[in-house]
Write a structure and sequence with these properties.
By secondary structure, the chain is an alpha+beta fold. Helix content is about 40%, strand content about 15%. The strands form 3 sheets. An 8-stranded mixed sheet has the order 6-8-7-12-13-11-9-10, with helices on both faces. Strands 1-3-2 form a 3-stranded mixed sheet, sandwiched between helices. Helix 7 packs antiparallel against helix 15 and helix 9 (about 295-320) packs across helix 10 (about 335-345). The relative contact order is 0.14.
Length: about 475
């Protein structure tokens, strides 16, 4: 049996191991592994022990006191550090516990430490200046991905079986692909938000977790899913009364390996899809190749408009709190470029960009009238090396001078600075913009020994289909998990 989260929860529930013994085992693994991974940035054993001892009936919850690390971005616990990967907040402490963290605690998780994230979550690698590079347990020369790279690394290394994560453009699914994990991005409006930041990148961002088993994913999802009356987004309740995976025998599955932004796709990613198709057809599913269903190039530019506008609003609020204007020296250069772009956007342009998100959502829901699922690679390539420069000196010079650029010039430099990283992971942003659920499954390992995920999308509210197809891959030994979970 795989030693996943529910395995350890049962060990805790039946007193096969005490909570203190398990925490001390995690601590030994942190001391052994984290100096190379650079994934965990805080570790609070005393707080966890205190919370476990004070929580009534915790053994009756699904996860029975299982320790979990929170992401150092948007997953606040009162009194804990809340840096968002930024030097501006290096000593900032959270003044409240977020609703998402409260929900984790209600289903039996005990927060124990925090994982690294890039500054404000803007990258698909984890390399915040204040923390340094987070490395991949499969090969320390490679990145763990981002922005939930720290979360993915501690799970792939076997330090924790589940880690809290979040996804605003692929930040759960990209590190899942790079680290051989399961990464579900739920439907917009299914996970708890608040008591601040209700819209989360206009609904593009959502919190969930990284796991190594479908039963952990299933239990976590159904344990946390709900409706908050104050929340601006509510998910369709097509399947909410049936809290079990779908039993439909044959699914209609569309697939594409074409990059939505016209960038190259590795032969390994294409091979991963071919092998997945062979398996799906052997299981009786109908698989059809289609053209990519939306205008990906337009959508990614509209996505960057949201990044810019949200960042400008964020720094306006930060400046008010600091009682001074923020400067280029307060942040990393990429953040500065996004911020300056946001200050140059018109309200009309921003509204038009959000309208294009809604048009894409309609196009995808129309697709799901014909097909149950849409299959693509999760990432076009395996994890890049830590030493890979995803920008250039010319781009950095333009970013340095972003304050002097026109709106169009600022838009172009933002596109250019993301171009190399976007080529690695062009498939994940769509589900964030449309609000539909998507899951990365760990089904492939390259000849160089690096994992690559495949991604399924479904109609809003149809996580049951994603869980169903994931379980089929898992039960038929199609998963390629990190070695520590094998055997």
């Amino acid at each position: 049996m795989i030693k996943d989260g529910l395995f350890w929860a049962e060990q805790l529930r039946t007193n096969q191991i005490s909570f203190q013994e398990y925490v001390e085992e995690i601590e030994r693994n942190v001391l052994k592994e984290n100096s190379q991974l650079n994934a965990l940035v805080t570790f609070d054993k005393e707080s966890a022990l205190k919370q476990y001892n004070e929580t009534k009936n915790i053994q009756e919850t699904p996860f029975a006191g299982l320790p979990i690390p929170l992401k150092m971005l948007g997953q606040s616990k009162k009194g804990w550090l809340a840096t968002s990967g930024s030097r501006l907040f290096i000593n900032q402490r959270a003044s409240y516990t977020s609703h998402f963290v409260h929900s984790l605690e209600k289903i039996g998780f005990i927060p124990l430490g925090q994982t690294a994230a890039p500054e404000f979550g803007f990258k698909n690698v984890t390399d915040a200046n204040i923390y340094g590079d987070t490395r991949n347990p499969w090969n320390f020369a490679h990145s763990a991905g981002g922005s939930s790279g720290g979360a993915a690394a501690v799970v792939a290394a076997g330090i924790f079986p589940i880690a809290a994560a979040s996804d605003g453009g692929g930040s759960i699914r990209i590190p899942a692909s790079f680290n051989g994990l399961i990464g579900l991005k739920p439907t917009r409006g299914t996970m708890p938000v608040g008591p601040t930041g209700w819209r989360g990148w206009q609904g593009a961002s959502i919190s969930f977790g990284l796991t190594v088993s479908m039963r952990d994913t299933h239990t976590m999802f159904y344990g946390m899913r709900g409706t908050e009356l104050a929340a601006p987004y509510h998910a369709p309740k097509l399947e909410w009364q049936h809290q079990q995976v779908a039993q439909k025998k044959s699914l209609r599955i569309a697939f594409s390996t074409i990059s939505p932004v016209g960038t190259p796709v590795s032969e390994e990613a294409i091979q991963a899809i071919k092998e997945a198709i062979d398996f799906l057809e052997s299981q009786g599913h109908e698989v059809t190749e289609i053209s990519y269903p939306v205008n990906g190039s337009r959508l990614i530019r509209d996505y960057y408009q949201m990044n810019g506008a949200e960042t400008a609003a964020m720094f306006e609020e930060i400046s008010h709190g600091l009682q001074r204007e923020v400067t280029k020296e307060d942040m990393e250069l990429m953040t500065w470029g996004i911020y300056q772009y946001g200050t140059k956007l018109s309200a009309a342009s921003y509204v038009h960009s959000l309208q294009s998100w809604d048009e894409a959502a309609y196009q995808m829901e129309t697709l799901f009238e014909t097909y149950d699922l849409f299959l693509t690679p999760t990432t076009a390539y395996p994890a890049p090396k830590v030493a890979t420069d995803l920008q250039s000196d010319e781009i950095r010079t333009r970013l340095e001078n972003a304050v002097d650029l026109s709106a169009n010039e600022a838009a172009q430099v933002v596109y250019d600075m993301f171009e190399a990283s976007l080529a690695l992971s062009p498939y994940t942003q769509l589900a964030n913009l449309t609000g539909q659920p998507a899951i990365s499954l760990p089904t492939f390992v390259t000849n160089e020994g690096l994992p690559l995920g495949i991604q399924f999308m479904a109609s809003k509210g149809r996580e049951d289909l994603l869980l169903h197809i994931g379980l089929a891959f898992e039960e038929n030994q199609q998963f390629k998990l990190p070695k520590i979970y094998q055997g």
